[in-house]
Design goal:
Layout: H1 3-22, H2 34-51, H3 55-62
Helix pairs in contact: 1-2, 1-3
């Protein structure tokens, strides 16, 4: 698995989990403040699209995962 694919899987998982924990109608609801985490992940994805810098990808490379291309 490459870092590109792993970052997408991780970001999607974080968004779905934080929505499940932050939406009041969810059976897993904990606190509405989990929606801030959803916003953080989205903002990080947006900035990495422009700057090509992703902290999660940098960490994965340091842990030995290979990059795409």
């Amino acid at each position: 698995m490459t870092t590109d694919r792993a970052v997408r899987i991780m970001a999607g998982s974080f968004i779905l989990i934080s929505l499940a924990l932050g939406v009041p109608d969810s059976p897993l609801f904990v606190s509405k403040y989990f929606l801030w985490f959803t916003a953080f992940v989205g903002a990080n994805l947006l900035q990495s699209g422009f700057t090509r810098f992703c902290p999660a990808e940098s960490l994965m490379v340091k842990l030995g995962m290979k990059r795409l291309g």
